[in-house]
Amino acid sequence: MESALKPFRVLAYVVGVMLLVLCVAMVLRYGFGDATMSKITAPIHGGFYMIYLLTVMNLGMKARWTWPYMLGVMLGGTVPFLSFYVERRVTQRVQSALAAAEA
């Protein structure tokens, strides 16, 4: 489970940052008519989000999460700033589970 936590944490931050960049790109696109940044950022965010979903599945299967919890963690990458919060909560949950398993 510990081996699956690090990729999840990295991807949660990458997806969170890319989502914020995508929000800026959308403001530029629809607010100022400049679609250049969004044409580059949107596919990059989408690719990282797909990898994020795989890391959540990997961690969720190893940690034996319920499907509703796993889906909630997956949705964390779709709302700006939420992935940072979800990453912190998941890390605390996994670390406490690891500590309980060692005790």
Automatic annotation (TrEMBL):
Protein name per the record: DUF3817 domain-containing protein
Keyword Transcription regulation: no
Pfam families, alphabetized: DUF3817 (PF12823)
NCBIfam families found in the cross-reference section: integ_memb_HG
Keyword line: Cell membrane, Membrane, Transmembrane, Transmembrane helix
Domain DUF3817: 5-91
Main location: membrane
Any one of the GO CC terms: plasma membrane
Membrane-spanning residues: 12-32, 44-61, 67-86
UniProt membrane topology term: Multi-pass membrane protein
The species this protein was found in: Nonomuraea turkmeniaca
Localisation per UniProt entry: Cell membrane
InterPro entries referenced in this protein's UniProt entry, alphabetically: DUF3817_TM
